[in-house]
Write a structure and sequence with these properties.
Blueprint (H helix, E strand, L loop, with lengths): L1 H5 L1 H4 L11 H5 L15 H9 L7 H14 L4 H6 L4 H20 L11 H11 L4 E4 L5 E3 L5 E4 L12 E9 L3 E8 L3 H6 L6 H5 L19
Parallel strand pairs: 3-5
Antiparallel strand pairs: 1-2, 1-4, 2-3, 4-5
Length: about 220
Amino acid sequence: MHARISTGSGGLVLPCAGLRSPPLSCVSPPPRLCFPPLCSDKAVHADTAHKNFWQKGGDHLTLLNVYNQWRDADYSADWCFENFIQIRSLKRCRDIREQLESMLARVEVELQTECKDDQSIRKAITSGFFYHVAKLEKSGSYKTVKHSQQVHMHPSSCLHQEMPRWVLYFELVLTKKEFMRNVIEIDPAWLIEVAPHYYSKKEVEDATKIKMPKAKGKSSEVPQ
Protein backbone atom coordinates (compact mmCIF):
# COMPACT_ATOMS: atom_id res chain seq x y z
CA MET A 1 0.00 0.00 0.00
CA HIS A 2 2.70 2.50 1.00
CA ALA A 3 4.91 1.21 -1.81
CA ARG A 4 2.18 2.09 -4.26
CA ILE A 5 1.85 5.57 -2.78
CA SER A 6 5.57 6.19 -3.15
CA THR A 7 5.46 5.52 -6.88
CA GLY A 8 1.92 6.61 -7.69
CA SER A 9 0.53 9.49 -9.72
CA GLY A 10 2.44 9.16 -12.93
CA GLY A 11 5.74 8.20 -11.39
CA LEU A 12 5.85 10.82 -8.66
CA VAL A 13 8.07 9.57 -5.87
CA LEU A 14 7.07 10.44 -2.33
CA PRO A 15 8.86 11.55 -0.33
CA CYS A 16 10.91 13.45 -2.86
CA ALA A 17 13.84 15.75 -2.33
CA GLY A 18 12.02 18.52 -4.17
CA LEU A 19 9.33 18.62 -1.51
CA ARG A 20 12.06 18.71 1.09
CA SER A 21 9.58 16.87 3.24
CA PRO A 22 8.19 13.40 4.04
CA PRO A 23 4.63 13.09 2.74
CA LEU A 24 4.78 9.30 2.84
CA SER A 25 5.84 9.31 6.48
CA CYS A 26 2.86 11.59 7.10
CA VAL A 27 0.45 9.15 5.44
CA SER A 28 0.57 7.15 8.68
CA PRO A 29 0.53 10.13 11.03
CA PRO A 30 1.72 9.80 14.62
CA PRO A 31 -1.07 9.38 17.18
CA ARG A 32 -0.49 12.88 18.45
CA LEU A 33 1.28 15.70 16.65
CA CYS A 34 -0.21 18.67 18.50
CA PHE A 35 -0.39 18.86 22.25
CA PRO A 36 -2.71 20.94 24.46
CA PRO A 37 -1.12 23.63 26.65
CA LEU A 38 -0.60 22.95 30.33
CA CYS A 39 -2.29 26.23 31.22
CA SER A 40 -5.90 26.67 30.14
CA ASP A 41 -5.33 30.37 29.41
CA LYS A 42 -3.05 29.35 26.52
CA ALA A 43 -5.65 27.14 24.87
CA VAL A 44 -6.69 29.90 22.47
CA HIS A 45 -3.06 30.50 21.49
CA ALA A 46 -2.55 26.79 20.85
CA ASP A 47 -5.70 26.56 18.75
CA THR A 48 -4.65 29.59 16.70
CA ALA A 49 -1.13 28.22 16.23
CA HIS A 50 -2.46 24.89 14.95
CA LYS A 51 -4.98 26.52 12.59
CA ASN A 52 -2.21 28.60 11.08
CA PHE A 53 -0.78 25.36 9.66
CA TRP A 54 -3.99 24.39 7.88
CA GLN A 55 -3.72 23.91 4.12
CA LYS A 56 -6.34 23.73 1.40
CA GLY A 57 -6.70 20.19 0.21
CA GLY A 58 -6.60 18.44 3.55
CA ASP A 59 -4.83 17.18 6.61
CA HIS A 60 -1.86 15.45 4.97
CA LEU A 61 -0.91 18.75 3.35
CA THR A 62 -1.26 20.38 6.76
CA LEU A 63 1.12 17.79 8.26
CA LEU A 64 3.49 18.46 5.38
CA ASN A 65 3.37 22.17 6.14
CA VAL A 66 4.17 21.52 9.81
CA TYR A 67 7.20 19.45 8.88
CA ASN A 68 8.45 21.99 6.32
CA GLN A 69 8.23 24.82 8.81
CA TRP A 70 10.05 22.76 11.44
CA ARG A 71 12.76 21.98 8.91
CA ASP A 72 13.05 25.68 8.00
CA ALA A 73 13.46 26.41 11.71
CA ASP A 74 16.48 24.05 11.70
CA TYR A 75 14.54 21.31 13.51
CA SER A 76 14.25 23.53 16.56
CA ALA A 77 12.80 22.22 19.82
CA ASP A 78 11.90 25.79 20.79
CA TRP A 79 9.86 26.16 17.61
CA CYS A 80 7.88 23.05 18.54
CA PHE A 81 7.25 24.35 22.04
CA GLU A 82 6.11 27.75 20.74
CA ASN A 83 3.69 26.12 18.29
CA PHE A 84 2.45 23.38 20.66
CA ILE A 85 3.84 20.59 18.46
CA GLN A 86 5.20 17.25 19.65
CA ILE A 87 8.88 17.19 18.66
CA ARG A 88 9.04 13.43 19.21
CA SER A 89 6.45 12.91 16.46
CA LEU A 90 8.34 15.15 14.04
CA LYS A 91 11.60 13.35 14.75
CA ARG A 92 9.85 10.09 13.91
CA CYS A 93 8.78 11.55 10.54
CA ARG A 94 12.35 12.67 9.86
CA ASP A 95 13.71 9.22 10.70
CA ILE A 96 11.22 7.53 8.37
CA ARG A 97 12.08 9.99 5.60
CA GLU A 98 15.78 9.24 5.92
CA GLN A 99 15.11 5.50 5.83
CA LEU A 100 12.98 5.84 2.71
CA GLU A 101 15.57 7.99 0.97
CA SER A 102 18.21 5.41 1.75
CA MET A 103 16.04 2.61 0.35
CA LEU A 104 15.31 4.57 -2.83
CA ALA A 105 18.99 5.33 -3.33
CA ARG A 106 19.81 1.63 -2.90
CA VAL A 107 17.51 0.67 -5.78
CA GLU A 108 18.63 3.70 -7.83
CA VAL A 109 15.30 5.52 -7.86
CA GLU A 110 15.92 9.15 -8.75
CA LEU A 111 14.36 11.75 -6.47
CA GLN A 112 12.70 14.78 -7.99
CA THR A 113 14.37 18.14 -7.53
CA GLU A 114 11.17 20.14 -7.12
CA CYS A 115 7.49 19.49 -6.67
CA LYS A 116 4.96 22.08 -5.59
CA ASP A 117 1.90 20.36 -6.98
CA ASP A 118 -0.30 19.37 -4.06
CA GLN A 119 -2.73 17.69 -6.45
CA SER A 120 -0.03 15.16 -7.36
CA ILE A 121 0.54 14.45 -3.68
CA ARG A 122 -3.16 13.86 -3.04
CA LYS A 123 -3.46 11.75 -6.15
CA ALA A 124 -0.50 9.61 -5.07
CA ILE A 125 -2.09 9.08 -1.66
CA THR A 126 -5.33 8.13 -3.42
CA SER A 127 -3.48 5.44 -5.37
CA GLY A 128 -2.66 3.68 -2.10
CA PHE A 129 -5.80 4.38 -0.03
CA PHE A 130 -8.44 4.31 -2.79
CA TYR A 131 -10.69 2.04 -0.73
CA HIS A 132 -10.94 4.68 2.05
CA VAL A 133 -13.26 7.05 0.18
CA ALA A 134 -16.46 8.73 1.27
CA LYS A 135 -18.80 11.16 -0.44
CA LEU A 136 -21.13 13.80 0.92
CA GLU A 137 -24.81 12.92 0.66
CA LYS A 138 -27.70 15.28 0.04
CA SER A 139 -28.60 14.87 3.71
CA GLY A 140 -25.34 16.59 4.65
CA SER A 141 -23.63 13.47 6.03
CA TYR A 142 -20.88 11.32 4.54
CA LYS A 143 -21.16 7.71 3.44
CA THR A 144 -18.37 5.41 2.34
CA VAL A 145 -18.60 4.72 -1.37
CA LYS A 146 -18.37 0.94 -1.29
CA HIS A 147 -20.28 0.00 1.84
CA SER A 148 -22.61 2.99 2.38
CA GLN A 149 -21.40 3.30 5.97
CA GLN A 150 -22.27 6.60 7.59
CA VAL A 151 -19.16 8.43 8.75
CA HIS A 152 -18.36 11.91 10.01
CA MET A 153 -15.57 14.39 9.57
CA HIS A 154 -13.33 14.48 12.65
CA PRO A 155 -13.61 17.92 14.30
CA SER A 156 -9.80 18.25 14.33
CA SER A 157 -9.66 18.10 10.51
CA CYS A 158 -8.91 21.29 8.61
CA LEU A 159 -11.76 20.29 6.26
CA HIS A 160 -14.47 19.92 8.88
CA GLN A 161 -16.04 23.29 8.00
CA GLU A 162 -15.59 23.11 4.23
CA MET A 163 -17.14 19.64 3.92
CA PRO A 164 -15.92 18.84 0.38
CA ARG A 165 -18.02 16.44 -1.66
CA TRP A 166 -15.40 13.68 -2.10
CA VAL A 167 -12.81 12.81 0.55
CA LEU A 168 -10.26 10.14 1.34
CA TYR A 169 -9.46 9.29 4.95
CA PHE A 170 -6.57 7.49 6.62
CA GLU A 171 -8.58 5.76 9.32
CA LEU A 172 -11.93 5.56 11.08
CA VAL A 173 -12.12 6.28 14.81
CA LEU A 174 -15.12 5.00 16.72
CA THR A 175 -16.45 6.98 19.68
CA LYS A 176 -20.16 7.73 19.83
CA LYS A 177 -19.92 8.12 16.05
CA GLU A 178 -17.60 6.84 13.33
CA PHE A 179 -15.15 9.65 12.57
CA MET A 180 -12.81 9.98 9.59
CA ARG A 181 -9.38 11.09 10.74
CA ASN A 182 -6.65 12.61 8.54
CA VAL A 183 -8.72 13.54 5.53
CA ILE A 184 -7.90 14.94 2.09
CA GLU A 185 -10.15 16.21 -0.67
CA ILE A 186 -10.02 14.21 -3.89
CA ASP A 187 -11.31 14.36 -7.44
CA PRO A 188 -13.52 11.27 -8.00
CA ALA A 189 -12.09 10.92 -11.51
CA TRP A 190 -8.81 9.84 -9.89
CA LEU A 191 -10.50 6.69 -8.60
CA ILE A 192 -11.17 5.41 -12.10
CA GLU A 193 -7.59 6.22 -13.06
CA VAL A 194 -5.82 4.59 -10.11
CA ALA A 195 -8.29 1.80 -9.28
CA PRO A 196 -10.40 0.85 -12.31
CA HIS A 197 -10.60 -2.68 -10.91
CA TYR A 198 -12.31 -1.41 -7.76
CA TYR A 199 -14.61 1.42 -8.89
CA SER A 200 -17.08 1.69 -11.74
CA LYS A 201 -17.73 4.93 -13.58
CA LYS A 202 -21.27 4.95 -12.25
CA GLU A 203 -20.04 4.95 -8.66
CA VAL A 204 -17.91 8.05 -9.14
CA GLU A 205 -20.25 9.96 -11.43
CA ASP A 206 -23.65 9.48 -9.82
CA ALA A 207 -23.14 12.19 -7.18
CA THR A 208 -21.63 14.98 -9.26
CA LYS A 209 -24.98 16.57 -10.09
CA ILE A 210 -26.70 16.12 -6.74
CA LYS A 211 -27.60 19.43 -5.17
CA MET A 212 -25.84 19.77 -1.82
CA PRO A 213 -27.08 21.59 1.29
CA LYS A 214 -26.13 25.25 1.41
CA ALA A 215 -22.42 25.87 2.11
CA LYS A 216 -21.64 22.15 1.93
CA GLY A 217 -20.04 20.05 -0.74
CA LYS A 218 -18.12 23.00 -2.20
CA SER A 219 -14.70 22.09 -3.49
CA SER A 220 -11.84 24.29 -2.33
CA GLU A 221 -10.34 24.12 -5.80
CA VAL A 222 -11.23 23.63 -9.44
CA PRO A 223 -10.44 20.04 -10.49
CA GLN A 224 -7.79 19.78 -13.18
